[in-house]
Amino acid sequence: MAAxxxxxxxxxxxxxxxxxWSVYLLCMVPGALLVAAAFADRLGxxxxxxxxxxxxxxxxxxxxxxxxxxPIRELTGLNLVRFRRAVGLAAFTTVVLxxxxxxxxxxxxxxxxxxxxxxxxxxxxxxxxxxxxxxPLAATSTDAMIRRMGPRAWRRxxxxxxxxxxxGAVHFVLLVKAWPPEPLIYLAIVLALIGWRLLPRRRAxxxxx
Length: 209
Hints:
By secondary structure, the protein is mostly helical. The chain has ten helices and no strands. The protein has one domain.
């Protein structure tokens, strides 16, 4: 149910004063704290594994947050669309940190070993596919690229984030292997947010003459 018009107006007035870059920085706080904790050796007996896993989870949470912006607007009237790019870029940055942790801490940046993992381990194959999809989305997340591509083509390209989010959630499910509920819940949330976009929308009735 949408919030009261007066409350929404005040909320939107406050949000207009929030710069997008501050939302990006806020979204990056968890990743920065994780990296700091790793350097301070505060991530338990397997700091490398904990760092890579937690960065991966935070990147998935940020992707989910980006996907949730449209349903939030349609359900409540709260318009956070102008922050979606900042959230998406924070998700991509966190994915890069997650990938850097895997390639550096686990594989020592050994391209042969990394290639072997991609071919032999389905969860890494799927994770790399999700990352490959996110790269062009991050690269085109500027006003200049929107003008160059045209809004329609740009929106069509950026719908690939749905595929990346599904692959990211499946990557998490396959990674844990023991089928605990947490990764399955993430996958269910991603599918629900994408499924929301497929629901028929009620068209507004024309005003009486």
